[in-house]
Amino acid sequence: MDTKAYIVLANGQVFEGKSFGATGCVTGEVVFTTSMTGYLETLTDPSYHGQIVLQTFPLIGNYGVIPQDFESCKLHPAGYIVREWCTKPSNFRCQGNINQLLKEQGIIGIYDVDTRALTKIIRQQGTMNARLITFCGDKEKDAQATEELAPVLYTLTKNPGFVAHAGKIRLIEELAAYKLDNPSLATSKSADFVATSPLQVFQEALSYKAVPVTSEGKLATTFEQASWRGLGKKLVLWDFGSKANLWRELVKRGFEVETLSASSTCDEIVASDPDGVVISDGPGNPTENVAAIEEIRNLIESGIPIFAVGLGHLLLALAAGAKTEKLLYGHRGSSQPVREVATGKVYITSQNTGYTVVADTLPEGAEPAFYNCHDNTCEGINYKDFPGISVQFQPESAHAPLESRTIFDSFFDLIDAVKQLQNA
């Protein structure tokens, strides 16, 4: 039997829905993603750690649960909001439904909610914290939810539907102070389970035609064609909450990849003697990674080529002397257009970020390489004073267009250029 559930926004508005997945009460920042597919990748993306994810696409779960598509070893959101979840998924790889998955991993879910109206509030007022209050039907287990629901029901009886009642619900006072502790450290190396052989990674990618493109512009159909750039070279993946597919994209191009945790130091990275360093995506406010930013400054001085993605892009910019700021509602989804400055070409990209680099604060020797077509925010940077490039978007995303993956070749060109200078 369906039980009622409630979303209490920090601005005082309330949405009533139904409970699925785990039950209880949880607080988090509500963010929306516009992706039409890839809900499994979304749920297992470490960048969503501790947030309440709202899916704008109305039907979620239609192809069930496919563990092989997970981007990390667990689900990271604190809560999950959908319009409708599919009770009878259909896919030959399906191993369960999304309701079971959320229950097993303790993620609170709410469905039968007007997700369009909720998304419009966030777009207009910005991302905000919320409290999810759900029930399981057991009086003893639902005691906390029942207690918290009392002031919510009080306002609902006066104004049916969702209402503005700021100041009337005491729990809202707690939401503004809600904060995650060390989210990057909490999610670092959560994708280590994908450590299979490079050849196997390539063969799996070939079955989906998600393989590198050759210099002639054709898909690589053999591992030899795909791996010629990376054979004999080593990369360090500095993991601040990386998705599994970033590792896959590197190894299927022939690179030896050593993953180091977010707490690693520049000395440890240099001691590994890599040809290049990839600073991964991850969750949280970039400015809170004070120790990591200092270590990245040291890494810049080492002269090792750097490629930074997502959170890594923000951290590298901060280390170089730029500033970051929070976006009103972020860029989350698999159809975010970005424009390349050098060519004017527009790429459709996958993104998951709530922050951006302030382009006007970039130091000399750092130039914007990409801009977002919607709000003109900085989406990529080329560094001239040291061998480094970075992008805000996610070229490694498994459920997005493949066109932006050419950025990997730009990094490999950078590695080769540095090697030629060293050997000259």
Task: Kindly describe this structure.
A hairpin with a 5-residue loop joins strand 14 (about 325-340) and strand 15. It contains 13 helices and 18 strands. About 30% of the residues lie in helices and about 25% in strands. The strands form 3 sheets. A 9-stranded mixed β-sheet has the order 11-10-12-13-18-17-16-14-15, with helices on both faces. Strands 1-2-8-6-4-3-9 form a 7-stranded mixed β-barrel. Strands 5-7 form a two-stranded parallel sheet. Helix 11 crosses helix 12 (about 310-320). The chain has about 425 residues and is α/β, with parallel strands linked by helices.
Number of strands: 18
Q: State the end-to-end CA separation.
A: 73 Å
The portion of residues forming beta strands comes to 25-35%
Coarse structural class: alpha/beta
Note the total helix count.
13
Radius of gyration: 22 Å
State the helical fraction: 25-40%
Strand line-up across the major sheet: 11-10-12-13-18-17-16-14-15
Shape: globular
Largest sheet: 9 strands, mixed
- List the uncertain runs: 160-179
Mean of residue pLDDT values: 88
